[in-house]
Write a structure and sequence with these properties.
With 376 residues, the protein is α+β, with helices and mostly antiparallel strands. It has helices spanning 29-40, 48-51, 81-88, 109-115, 122-128, 133-149, 187-202, 232-241, 336-359, 364-372, and strands at residues 2-7, 13-19, 57-60, 62-63, 66-67, 72-77, 153-161, 164-165, 209-216, 246-251, 269-272, 276-279, 287-288, 291-292, 297-303, 314-316, 323-325. It starts with a strand and ends with a helix.
Length: 376
């Protein structure tokens, strides 16, 4: 399976092509739209969310709600394009009216200008923008449907917002009770986080946080210890790191393992006839030797503060080289709850690819039968 996305933040729309899905997989448009709405929600979001109401359109590969086995094309059209057509139209436009040369710290602006031999950072930021994640959520929801057919579920929650953390331990089933405003689990921690966001907004500042995402039901043996490119943890971490603003990913107890003795890190193995092989702990986060071991997969990601500050940071003008204040595009103060949904979607896409690489199969029943024969 292969997923390709295209489109610009203020262009006509965002698009994804998913190749290699089995035929007869149900595709629920309203479920995709529900996840798109979750991506746009959350405390601390900015003005763009009031302009766009993202909804998916399926352009190919699906008939009567089920995949055909041909490439599936998804589109999320930008409502804001009507306000930007004069400056963004591929057929011809006035580029000078929305030129951006005050390159923004923390963005792709400066490096992208040099790499692609451009003079206007808009030609970089339009694609580098986190707006691109809307179509990844759409594609991820299609992949989520495939995983669900196999009994694999993906969920998560926000653990920390700008230093305000929730160190609780929650079962996978409890994650459905995450709070809507910030996708946190602890009401008191979330209330403190909301106060912090309000203070940062007043100061023209931004914040990030950390997110935990989990996978339940993935059987053992996905990924490989034989070549580094096939290691499951490497692939899943890369999928999460590909999301804008993510600066770090850990598996299981992650960096905590560096501070502990081996007896406090490695998960001892047990066996009985009813359960087969099992572990009483899951510090490895469900991955050993680059392969899933049948336990829940646990990943955590660190999201940096959004780099577009209403109180702009110091920079220079790319053309004149003179000191300047970074441009303030429409932006969020905090997008941590949206990022949680995006990370789930990125994870769904990568796990679906890993699963189909191992199982193959032209139609859904064939994939399910092959998955059912695997040991847990």
């Amino acid at each position: 399976m292969k997923i390709t996305t295209a489109g610009e933040s203020h262009g006509k729309g965002l698009f994804a092509i998913i190749e290699g899905l089995p035929s007869l997989l149900p595709v629920n448009t309203e479920e995709i739209n529900a996840y798109l709405a979750l991506r746009q929600s959350g405390y601390g979001r900015g003005g763009r969310q009031k302009i766009e109401t993202d909804r998916v359109e399926i352009l190919s590969g699906v008939r009567n709600g089920k995949t055909l086995g041909s490439p599936v094309t998804l589109a999320v059209f930008n409502r804001d394009y009507e306000n930007w057509q004069a400056y963004m139209a591929p057929e011809g436009c006035d580029e000078s009216a929305r030129t951006l040369t005050h390159v923004r710290p923390g963005h792709a602006d400066l490096t992208g200008l040099k790499k692609f031999a451009q003079k206007d950072a808009r030609n970089i930021l339009e694609r580098a923008s986190a707006r691109e994640t809307a179509i990844r959520v759409a594609a991820g929801t299609v992949c989520r449907g495939l995983l669900r057919e196999l009994g694999i579920e993906v969920s998560g929650y926000v653990r920390e917002v700008c230093g305000i953390s929730d160190d609780g331990n929650y079962s996978f089933e409890q994650l459905k009770n995450r709070l809507p405003e910030l996708a946190m689990m602890n009401k008191q921690a979330q209330a403190c986080a909301i106060e912090r966001i309000d203070a940062l907004k007043k100061a023209g500042n931004t914040c990030g946080g950390s997110i935990e995402v989990r996978v339940k039901g993935l059987k053992s043996g996905f990924g490989s210890c034989m070549t580094y490119a096939e290691k499951l943890d490497a692939r899943l971490c890369a999928a999460l790191m590909s999301v804008q603003a993510i600066k770090g990913v850990e598996v299981g107890i992650g960096f905590g393992a560096a501070r502990l003795a081996g007896s406090e890190v490695h998960d001892e193995i047990f066996y009985n006839e009813a359960r087969g092989f099992y572990r009483q702990t899951n510090r490895a986060g469900g991955i050993e030797g680059g392969m899933s071991n049948g336990e829940e997969i646990v990943l955590r990601a660190a999201m940096k503060p959004i780099p577009t500050l209403m109180k702009g940071l110091r920079t220079v003008d790319y053309l004149t080289k003179s000191p300047a204040t970074a441009a303030a595009e429409r932006s969020d103060v905090c997008a941590i709850s949206a990022c949680e949904i995006i990370l789930e979607s990125a994870l769904c896409c990568e796990i679906a690819q890993v699963v189909l690489e191992r199982l193959g199969g032209d139609h859904l029943a064939e994939v399910k039968e092959r998955y059912g024969r695997l040991p847990a």
